[in-house]
Amino acid sequence: MTPEMEYTTIKVQEDFYVIAQRGVKCFLFVGTDNALLVDTGFGGDLMAEIRKITDKPIKLVLTHSDGDHVAADSQFSEKYMHPSEFSTYIKKNKRSPGCLPIWEGDIIDLGNFRFEVILIPGHTPGSIALLEREKRFILGGDTMQDNAIYMFGEGRDLAAFRCTMAKLMAMQDDFDIIYPSHGNMTAPKSVLKEHYELAGDILEGIWPEPQPAPAHMPESVKLWQKGEARLYLEK
User: Fold this and answer.
1) What is the pLDDT of residues 82-131, one digit of tens each?
2) What is the strand order of the sheet 177-180 is part of?
3) Could you list the residue range(s) of the whole structural domain that residue 94 is in?
4) Rounded to whole angstroms, how far apart are CA atoms 40 and 127?
5) How far apart are CA 120 and CA 142, in angstroms?
6) The domain spanning residue 85 has which CATH number?
7) For the whole model, what pTM was predicted?
8) First CA to last CA across the chain, in angstroms?
9) Which of 63, 57, 54, 106 lies closest to 77, judged by CA?
10) What is the tally of structural domains in the chain?
11) Rounded Cα gap, residues 161 and 29, in angstroms
């Protein structure tokens, strides 16, 4: 494996691991009888990395269909994704997802962890978060983070994203910690309100002055920022 594709595994707490690769994080939870993997990164032999931690059967849940979250999903036979992602998965990855459907309100019970599926559209139509109410943390995918969020290209919807921020703000008393897929290990809850306000300003035409996006992005893409909230979009 080339150095840029190598994994870095961090034990967050008992039976909870982060497997990071090229700036994206996968999450592994070792349950009583089986394990839950959330997302698969850019590719490589992710299964071998997981087998250093556990030999239990693995259930894979994909937060959404972007390539940096699904590239190693073919290594796992039991995998789930919200059906709103199926068509974008096929378009982006040029293959069938081979996933079972997962729905808002579904519960993933590992014995020592119990996750509730929360639908959070905007970044993609079927993006989901996973809420652990008893342990008071949430896995936010690409939607809940203080890193810049990609909101350009097919499937992105700024109005839906703003509605999602309102939804998450209304339930933020149910969690203390956000684990995002990119950037810092955790993100502050304040970023939800900041993203809500930033999206609202853009939609209402009260635009903050945008900054240029990195050179590898289309020239039409700009960076809008308000506090810790940052969005890459075409406007």
Assistant:
1) 999 999 999 988 899 999 999 999 999 999 999 999 999 999 999 999 99
2) 107-109, 114-119, 128-132, 137-141, 177-180
3) 3-234
4) 15
5) 10
6) 3.60.15.10
7) 0.96
8) 39
9) 57
10) 1
11) 28
